[in-house]
Amino acid sequence: MSVVDYLLAPYDFLHIIDQFVVCNFTSFSDHAPLHVRLWCILHDSQEPERNSGTSNNSYESYRWKEELKDQCYESLTLNSGSLSQIVFSDIEKSQDGIDNYVESFTSILMDIISPFFCKSHNSNNTCDRTRSKTTRYKDDKPWFNYECKRLRSIYTSSLYTFNRDKNVENHRILIMSKRQYKRLENKLKRKYKRQEGDMIVTLRKSDPKKYYNLFQKKRAKTSDVSLSEFFEHFRNLVTNDGINVTVDTPESVSDATYDELDQIITQDEILKCISNLKRGKSHGIDGTFNELFIEFKDILLPFLEEIFNKILASGHFPKSWALAVLIPVFKKGDSSDPANYRGISLVSNLAKTIYIYYKFKTN
């Protein structure tokens, strides 16, 4: 097999190509997708404006893709040495030392997996309205029938087999299964469009109102609240200005001690925590998502054990784990009133893992 997917770049630009990965073949194209990362320096003539705590910076969003699991596993294995240099190095047992330690590990880890699961997500000064109601995504085309689904399943299975073992026989089976699937899909698609066309022609005469409703553009529902208004609203919720709370406390309070919380965290305990993580959950600013720990626990387990115990020994909680992405979810009422939105905080899933550990310990 030969690689026919390539990147054209001037010779003078070769030194800024930091990463080049030929990804696995997908069902979207006959060509393998490429992942390229460049080192670029941006020169700003003016200092960016700061607007009441809000930021226009973009952050990376990650989504798990089962078909790229094996390729990412191989990349993690090859680059585990870079993680080891960070994780098993001596650190300063201070807040800054722990912060730099955790951020260095997270940065290298996400650089390794970003070619497989990363997609850019830009923030702006507007906010799409988010409802708590779950919307199910239907991936089947309206012309799909049972036979078409069966052939698609055979094709995707052949694609998975070929990506695992790229030999001539697997390639032949892949081409044959794809040809059979596409031939039937195109036939059913033409039949469906012909029936839809006949239906529209009939509808134009029998029910003109319904006919014109088919062509009305659907407007996306957006929030009437700016990010700065959301910022002020949620900031007021967590501050206690003007609120006086009197708490009756005894004159002498004995500090409760839990010896089990000072013991070394073991790999078995971390595995128990990982088994309680749920798939498909959103991640925080650092990008660590649950599938990362679930699928690659045999590689990451020694690193997590070392990181958690160093944090425990230092007595400092990483500041990056306390940061969260706040998602306003519209409940009901006036969409222009920030009080009608419920805030959901997305924190680091790496932090959730150690939180689950202490939850088990205290219970």
TrEMBL record:
Organism domain of life: Eukaryota
Protein name in UniProt: Reverse transcriptase domain-containing protein
Annotated source species: Mytilus galloprovincialis (Mediterranean mussel)
